[in-house]
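Quick question: who can interpret this fold?

. . .
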Amino acid sequence: MDAPSPSPPLWPRLRAWLELLRLPNLFTLPGDVLAGMALVSLGSALPAPSRIAAAVACSLALYALGLILNDITDVTEDRVERPHRPLPSGRISSRAALGAGLGAAFLAWASALGAGRAPAMVAGGLMVVILGYTYGRRWLPGHLPALVMGVCRAGNLALGAAFARPEWDFMVPTPLALAMGGSLLYITAVTLLARHETGGPAALSAPARYAPAAAMATATGLILAGLGPRMDMASFAGLTAVGACVTAAAAMECRRTRSGPLPMLVGRLVHLIVPWQAFLLLASGHHVPALVVLVLWYGARILSIRFAAS
């Protein structure tokens, strides 16, 4: 009788799961939650750490659900275009991935239900959008799939707001609405750029290449216009400088798409959502959380050396 084949070592198995979950991208989620909490009620302190932790757990679980379902539905295509990914390479079975996705859905739903009516409604809405995108995006026309991705990122800000105000009536304050609009614009532009990952830099037109930088400039401008009148001159000047730095960083990454490897550059553009979140926290007067979020950005950049972000 043949001996059973040994299980693969722990690290290769763990690495496969971290690749499936795009580990560096997970660092982009807590900042959305914190910014949403800060912007839904300007001038108020952030909620208790336990409530922040529950909101971040819900956000991470929803993101993991989307990634896992996306890879399961794309496994046939990935066998041709991305054979190194965990599912097409066989390092993780589709059945195991589906089980993990169901676990992520349960965690997200349990975290939201335990936090109140508003978090449950926002999390439920995001789950519906994730499922609709995963199983229906091939029938969505034009740029609509990219727009749905932007809606999900904007919804992550709303999730943070809902956890901060469990009985929220969904009357969206102007600062939060501007931030959600900015996140939607930026992630939509990055998603449109990511469509060309397998085609290489030559497949990019100039508008597609620089759209993320234009979106970031628009997003920061919206916040400065909306919150500037509430600030003193020094605070407004400092925030303007930070916004200009974030926009310049996006422009530099877009410029690199002329010759660099697109998957890596798309990952860097995704990670620039974190300085945008820090910008939002600074705009709302929460300086220490903004610094914490920037540390997460550094972590994402370091991990992206070892793990693909897209």
